[in-house]
User: Fold this.
Amino acid sequence: MDKTISNCKKLMLLVCSGLMALNCFGQQALGQRARVQSPIVNNDGTVTFNLFAPSAQRVSVSGDFNEIRSQSLPMTKQDNGVWTVTTGQLNPELYSYSFSIDGQRFIDPANSYVNRDISTLSNIFIVSKSNDDKGHLYGVNNVPHGMLSRVWYDSPTLGQQRRMTVYLPAAYDGKKRFPVMYLLHGHGGDETSWGDLGRTSQIMDNLIAEGKAVPMIVVMPNGNPTCNAAPGWWHEGMYTPDGNAFNQRGAKASMEESFMDIVKYIDSHYMTIAKRSGRAVTGLSMGGGHTFGISRLYPDQFDYYGLQSAAARVQQNNEQFDSQMQRLFASKPKLYWIAIGKDDFLMQSNTQLRSYLDSHSYPYEYYENDGGHIWRNWRIYLTLFAQKIFKQ
Assistant:
């Protein structure tokens, strides 16, 4: 009996010692974070990065603040073990970055703000100089806020319970009806992409508060028919996302073919304007391709279409394709909008699409800007598209 009590005391001592060690480690981390502030957005628009890594030999920082993303800024080691570097002046924008420590990629331990793009984690920061710039638009400001929810719905076409993200504007009270924008992600993305990387709720809150956009519901579904939800949020567990998860399984139907399951759920569970004039659909890259397909399959269901850096391919000498396009534009949608960056690798296919539309005198609007296939452009396209729709 005495031996048993003695063993229990030893076990309790070990547990308490472990807890004390964990607490000390946590306090140490807090202390390090307090000593090193990073990033620091300076008043002149430059940004200073700091990293405490006293035993490191080489440290650099890279991100989309560089004109060439693959380039990095070498950092200089101070006597206190902190590595530091200050950028040149940056334009107002949301930026992402990471550190390289002796050839290994790390996120910034002093910055709690992190986004996931497929399987890559990056820190983020915002540069803003006025209430009229993109940094302000992408930030959380003192305006009425909408509600962002993760919603499960049934898709009979795919035979699955699936998850999507729904944004309800601040004015949503369950009494008044609102139009709906369906916002589709690209390859490797999921139902969290537009909310996290695209800053959808911040953009919509700010545009609506400034009277630049009509209050609307925004629906961000998962566009991968072989995946029910974002990684870690369905029964497959915590697999490593790579953009092609479970594609080998095949699907009962395509995203386009199952799309009306989403529309029917939204119309039956929210106060929507459940007709063509109250619906818009837009998407980036793969989601732009989905938008292209949806426009041809359901030309009488949506009045506004937005193709952002779209993976849209014209089917030459295809009678069914020609018939679908003829039917779409005969229905006279209020907006068919194409947006792409000059350096986007999908520029050629978008140019071919525009040539096809021109040859048939199909009306569309076109927006071209600098840059390539990047979130910085897609946030711009969302901002522009949201201001064009549902206005009489």
